[in-house]
Amino acid sequence: MQKIIVPKKYDxxxxxxxILDSFPNLSQNFLYKALRxxxxxxxxxxxxxxxxxxxxxxxxxxxxxxxLFGKHELKVVYEDDNILAIDKEQEISVTDxxxxxxxxxxxxxxxxxxxxxxxxxxxxxxxxxxxxxxKNEEALKILFDKFKxxxxxxxxxxxxxxxxxxxxxILKDFLFKDSKKNKVYISSTKKTxxxxxxxxxxxxxxxxxxNTSILDINLHTGRTHQIRAHLSYIGYPIIGxxxxxxxxxxxxxxxxxQNLISYKLIFKFxxxxxxxxxxxxxxxxxxKNT
Length: 290
Description:
- By secondary structure, the chain is α+β, with helices and mostly antiparallel strands.
- The protein has three domains: 2-69, Structural Genomics Hypothetical 15.5 Kd Protein In mrcA-pckA Intergenic Region, Chain A; 75-151, Pseudouridine synthase, CATH 3.30.2350; 155-262, Pseudouridine synthase.
- It has helices spanning 15-22, 28-36, 65-69, 105-113, 137-148, 226-233, 247-252, and strands spanning 2-5, 40-42, 45-46, 58-61, 75-79, 83-88, 118-119, 128-134, 152-161, 168-178, 183-187, 195-207, 212-219, 260-267, 283-285.
- The model has no long low-confidence stretch (mean pLDDT 91).
């Protein structure tokens, strides 16, 4: 059984829409069967399929986790006494900060490797890639500091529509986060509420026939949706991105999931790193196939 709280964006939406968004692996047929069997409650009361939900409603779903979440395999990229690196798949959140999905990567990691493990950074739910976990408080504190001071280099791989004229460029613009719409906006000039963003890209591959490119992205700042919004802003949307990309382009390539992977972390410590000194110079990498 899973308990989830309805966030503001689902206020007055159909219960079925909220549950299917919350549990992408759950089939519609199984959901309607559960509703007929009264296996779903809102604020302690069993409900039917045509019910609407309100912000802060407590939803209890009496369906096996296997049907709600599917089977998630934890792919270990690297492990030692202090850290664990996991290749996170798409469609699973690192934590449940969004208050929607009950199953998260952090919960899966804690179940298998112990309750002391904590994530050191985040990835969007729809982005596959390396997520670093600390096994103890000292390692967590050090890694938080290293990410904050950009002593861990984060590289992403993206398939975009279009071929940039410049094979390498460092982009500097400004980003505004609209929390209500869960969307960000880019500006070339500084405005009230906008923060500077720096995104470096290098063209790795070009396909002139389909007019696409494979880019390596090095994040110098880590703002919400930065890569997706910034690439779209300069005219090279990520294929499969439903929020900042083009629906027409996504349909052309039959892509419904964004082609973006956090595929490489490089430890570049410039200051003493305590028990993690041995990590300096280490490169963690996964397959960059998009």
